[in-house]
Specification:
Helix content is 21%, strand content 25%. The protein has 603 residues and is of the alpha/beta class. A hairpin with a 5-residue loop joins β16 and β17. The termini are far apart.
Length: 603
Amino acid sequence: MSATRKKNRAGRRILVVGAGIATVGALVAALPAGAAQDRSQGAGGGWGRTVDVQLLSFNDLHGNLEPPAGSSGQVTHVHEDGTTEKIDAGGVEYLATHLRQAREGNRYSVTAAAGDLIGASPLLSGLFHDEPTIEALNKLDLDVTSVGNHEFDEGARELARMQNGGCHPTAGCAVDGKTFEGADFPYLAANVTDEKTGKPLLDPYFIWERNGVRIGFIGVTLEGTPNIVTAEGVKGLKFGDEVETINKYTKVLERKGVKSIVALVHEGGAPASGAYNYDCDSPGPGDGISGPITEIAKNVNPQVDALVTGHTHQAYVCTIPDPSGKPRLVTSASSYGKLYTDTTLTYDRRTKDIVRTSVASANHVVTRDVPKAKDITDLIRDWNALAAPIANRPQGFISADINGRGSTAYEKPLGDLIADAQLEGLSPADKGGAQLALMNPGGIRSDLVYKASGAEGDGVVTYGESFTVQPFTNMMNVVDLSGANLLAALKQQVSGSNAASVKILQVSKGLTYTLDMTKTGADRVVDGSVRLNGEPIDPAKTYRVAMNEFLAGGGDGFPALAAGTNKLVGASDLDLFNTYLAAHSSAAAPLAPPAADRITVVK
């Protein structure tokens, strides 16, 4: 961290962090001279018995510095009469302005995040290994964040570089003569340890302090991270139970005299409504939300006063009873910087704890009707200038929006398109001889939007846009897979680790089946309905199946796919996608959205 930045940050807070193995020592700063002379009174003042501490939070930014395109850049607002409207939201230039405006008049304000701030990023950030996003987060005055699963996309060493700085080991410095300085804020990874030493990979906790007000933050990611990240990304690491880890470090913080504690948890839930302002405490606390975070919240030590969560890209502000039955705040701010959560934590100086009955919280839209933050605009402009020669290359043409991430359907039009591109590119005998292709839905990171966001013209798909859809650059595999394993994989979409939150694979043309959602578990995939080019899948027969390396390793809860043999490694998913766009579209004959009629869904 530069001396100038250290000096600037010293004026905002004291940082105290736990010992980790990948950090560069404790990040400690001092309050400015005269800070101790604060003599204001009252609930929101400096030296009354209680102090209102503002907690601003967000999650799952995924390097979206510019406003997300299409439906990925919208949130849903529900009105009192039950009608809904879509609001354009997001863009870090606007997020910075909203956060800065929210902090005005708040003497005590801390900003935290719940992971996946980087990884699966659009080209503007992803092309430069997410250095632009870290620089933007520094300018946002982020105080602390937990890691998420996507912080491990490039492995532990690259995550350490995000924290500590330095040039990329193979790509070098993105800008000649400029060394990346790393994050000004601590990344927390309490439940991620080195398999050999048992030590935390990064700091497990952080203590924010101002004028004697102390709040501890514990950061964890989901225990199942190895199931949704490539094996290379989590090599040598162990991911512990979220509840056990939070409870362990809650006791550590208590021994240090810290009784006000917030858990930053990269795991989430599913509210009953997709509207950001939905009341998920109706008819009672936590009744309107389900998913993994509910069980975590019910079992985390009551000393923890609030949980800031993420991962599911949902928006909610709920109260879920803690083990003692007392309601406790659980929040999530959607994704891509479209929302931020503003929470008031009333701190009692005498007990050093949060007055739970006084906690108030709400999600706020990052609207685009406020002035852009100039420092962020300048940052985006500079990185865009570096990315432009690659980002602006035309790859193909579309006649209308082709929705992927923004689609709520099990079978997504963009998913069909991607699977078809993979099948076509890998079906030649010398390319693998694929007979079908499977694509994981989580790997589709955006939509293809018809309306131009830049100067290229409506309907033009640029390299930057295709990269945003397929940012992982996974290498494609073609493997021999028995019909029995293929059928088992389709059933694993709705059973096993995917039973609670189904993950429907996107399938290439020729593969069809029926999904009966009125049933439960594996029975949802109707026996005898799975066909390839009209012929029933034969359990005893061998099929050549194309999929990305993540799926071929059994990722996303598909162990049956890891049984593949006779593997051929092909081109990257992004290369196949761009090749397909070029081959099947032109300005005169743009590509239309696929019909998405391969999976028959019974509800």
